[in-house]
Structure formats: structure tokens, C-alpha cells
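Predict structure. Input: Membrane protein insertase YidC, 597 residues.
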Amino acid sequence: MGEEQRNLFIALGLILAIMLGYEFFFLRPAQEAREAERQEALEAAGELAEADPDLQLPDTEAAPAYETRDDALGDVQRVEIEGPAVLGSLSLTGSRFDDIRLRRHTVTVDNDTPIALLNPIGTEHTFYARDGWQSATPGFSDLPGNAAEWTLASGSRLTPETPVVLVHETASGLRFERTVSLDENYMFTIADTVTNNSGQPVDLARYGLVRHEGIPEDLVKNIAVFEGPLAVVDGAVTRTSFQRLEKGEGEEEVSGTGGWVGITQRYWMAAAIPDQDVAFTANFRIRERGAVDAYEATYIEATRELAPGASMTSTAYVFAGAKELDVLDAVEEDYGIERFDMSINWGWLWFLTRPFVWLLHLLEGVTGHFGLAILALTLIIKLVMFPLANRAYASMAKMKAVQPKMQELKERYAADTQKQQQALMELYRKEKINPLAGCLPILPQIPIFFALYQTLFNAIEMRHAPFFGWIRDLSAPDPTNMWNLFGLIPYDPSGIWLIGGVLGIGAWPIIMGITMAAQQALNPPPPDPMQARIFAMLPIVFTFVLAPFAAGLVIYWAWNNFLSVAQQYIIMRRHGNETQLDKLIKRLQGKASGDQS
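Output follows.
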């Protein structure tokens, strides 16, 4: 064996020894420690399920008697909450966030009452978030949970400038001091200091919980919207819809470090967020108890031991507010909460949806108007697609120009299909026409439309955003109806069956249908008469299909069609084609000349 070969084997042996040593002395102990933390978290989660009063729901088949919101709020002592974005109160029983109203978002366009996001126990659709502690150590079952009474130690009103301090002391000898603070938006910071005065060590596990009783009454059944429990753990997103949990499916349990859990609706979310440096286990579940089911997203941190006479600090967070993208990004950046923007349902076309959302925000800032931002975004997309569309429309113009020759070949070889196809191919080659080129702009438009649909359907910025004229809310369908001449006749057909429902078509869906028909008129007609009739019906069908959609989507579609018609018309005229529009103008001119004579 040569010197070089011997040195090579020695080097390989040293590398192998280093790798095995690193595995044995570093990686394996770290993995065992993580597994131990996970098991502790799972055991603590089991203790939580048994001991937490939140999970001890009454087992009854009878429908519960609900209180009014005001009555339920008055059942317990509270600390007032007032910030630029939220109003409400914090319950001193359980230290629950169960009364949060959103100042920036109203119930309807005409009703300036703030949206009530979180609702107290005892009301229909109870929805709250809270933070507590559990222990598996014998003799410490009295840690602060849902029924714990906290005392207001300092502060009188929770604002961004004035945090409040709560205190709870247990009979087992633990003292909990909790400082609750609020930022300028929807984030509450909960900093706890726990002192062990019991004289013996105790294992403690902090947990957070978001709970919603019953299915939300305004649940959106649409593939573009996700509503239900979700979590981010170790950067991975896990979600389960209300419907899946209702069917007895989708209960999840995921462990890791860094992340959050919550329950989200189309525009709103409540989330419980642990210390980002502590291992935790996230859990989704439904508690079936007779007439009312409770949907829960919880986390529980790994157990930590607190020695006698010692103190420990821990920080957690609760988010309760609107899913405004700039706010979600600020939470991620300012608090280090990983992937907090995943509370928005980006969909499987996220690589298009996310840039569209970013562009819409940018354009809204430039134009000062969300409707104009939609129009500008559509124009940008058309400019990006311009080269491809130009080639396609040019090919379609050539196809239309040679229609007479194509018809002649079909008649000449009517009895021989093979020769007819050969002759058509030769004509395409001679005229330099690609018959498939007309399909090219359609292919990218399909994912673009679905991505924009996903974007606009979930964008809270479109909610209650006005457009010009009669559109006061871009997220709602066009409010006009053709059966009262779009409001010119003073009666409301919305409550009348059929004409107020399926046949109740507004002005913007009709505009969209007209632009679609105009675009279709510029295309070469299908050779088959049946196909031609089907294609002629499509604008009418799409008018009815899109009528109940959000006005912002219909306006986008109509504006997109208009731009396509303008582009295609110019290309057709450049290639010497006479379009249906030209024929219509000639007929109108001829009629006008006849009337004058």
C-alpha cells in the first residue's frame, strides 16, 4: 500500500470516527432530550384534559338557555380594555379574553357597530382565548384554570400605555403574578412570574387555549376559505376545518418548538401563542356534549421544575383581531412569531396569491382606493401577458382571414376527411398559422383567475371597500337588480322568489356578460353549428354564474375582458379583419343614412 493510499484510509477513518462521536455524544443526547420534552408535554396535555374545567362541559341533550351578551359580561368582575384597534374587557375569572370588539371593522356598511369577535361564556357562539397552568405533581391540582379568581393588583384599565397586573395565589403555596399588556393592534402579551412558597419542588406546564362553541353562524362554505383550528409548529402548518371535526375527523396533535395555535374565520382570528423557545404540543379537538359542541385549539408547553422558594418567569401571547396582512407581518417581525401570516388561506396557488396580495397592498397605497388597485393589478397582469396574448390574437386574426379558404377546402373534400385535414395543414403551413396558438393566452389565465379569486375572496381590505357608483362594498354582490331597472323603479324585488334570487342579476354582472360576448365576437366562429350555439350561450351562462360573486371579482373579470377586447380589436384591424363590431357600426350608419334620406 502506497503512502497516499494509507493517508487516504487514515483520513477516512478519522472522518468516520468524528461522525460517530458527534452522533453518540451530541446528536443522540439532544434527540433523547427533545423526546423527553415531548413526552412530558404529552403527559401534561393528558393532565390538562382531565383537570381543566374548560373541558368539563355539561353532558346534556337539551338546548342551552343563552344569556344576552351584556348579562354574560356582568356575571364576573372585569378589567376594561381600550386600544386603537380593540374595545372590550378581560374577565378576572379565569383571566379570559372573552370580550373583544374590533374598532376598525363594523357589522355592515350602514351599521357602525364594531364587530364582536370574542364572546363570553353563557352566550350563543361563545368564543374566547385564555392562558393557564397545570401540574402533574400530587397536591398541586389547584393551579389557575378556567375558574380561577384573579385579583387586580395594579392598573385599572388595559391600554397600550397602561398594562395591568393580576395576582392569583393557590392553597398549595404557589403565587402567580401576571402582567397583561396590549400593543397598538390586536396583540396581548401575558408575562407571568411564578413563585413557589410550598416548601417542595413542583412540575409546572403552561398552556394556552382558544375555544369556540358551535359552528359559526356566518361560516363560509367556499373552497377558497378555510375556517377552523390551525397551528404552526416548527414551521409546518396544520389545519382542520370545523366541518371535519364535526364529522369526527381531523383531531390533530403536533409537537415542536416555535409556533402558535388558533381558530380562524374568513377575516378574523383568535390565537394562543407560547414562548417561542420552549417545546410545546399543539392539539385540535372537538368536545361533544349534547346539544353544543366545543371546538378547541390548545397548546401545552414542556414541563419545568420549580424548586422551593424559587421563582420562574414565562411569557405567552394572545392575538384577537382581523387578519390584516400588514398587522400579521408586524407580529411576525416584532414578536418573532413564525409564519403568522399563514392564518390567511393562500391556497395551493400561493406562489401567485402572495405576490398578488403584496401588489394589491402596494397599489392601494398608491391609488388610495382598493377598487382602483384591482383595476391597476389587472392592467399589470395584462402587460405581463402582452407578448403571449399578442401572438395568440395575431394567430386568431390570421385564422379569421383565411376562413373562406378553409370553408372552400372543407366543401371540396367533404367526402374525404383525411385529404381535408391534409389540405388544411398545408394551408396553415403556407399562411404560417398555428391553430393552437389561440389557446395559449387561456392556459395561464386559468391559474391567474383562481389565484386572484383566492386573493380577493380572503382580502379583508376588500370588505366594505367602496367602488364608484352604486357599489359600496366590493366584498358583497352587486346590490342592483335588473327587474326594477337597477333601482329606477321604486320597489325591492330581493324578497321575491326567483327574480330576487337566481334571476336577480345586477348591473356589473350584465356588463361582464357584454364584455365576454364582445370578446367572443372577435374570435373565429367554431366550424360546427352546435359548438357555435354553445359558445354563444356562454356569456349568458357566466352572467348568471358570477352574479352572486363579490362585486370586486365581477369588476375584475369585466375589466379584464374589456382590455382583452381592446387589444384583440386593434390586432384584428391591423391584419385587415372586419370584426362584428365593425359590421354593427356599418349597420347603424346605414340605418342612420336611410332615416335621413
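The mean pLDDT is 82.
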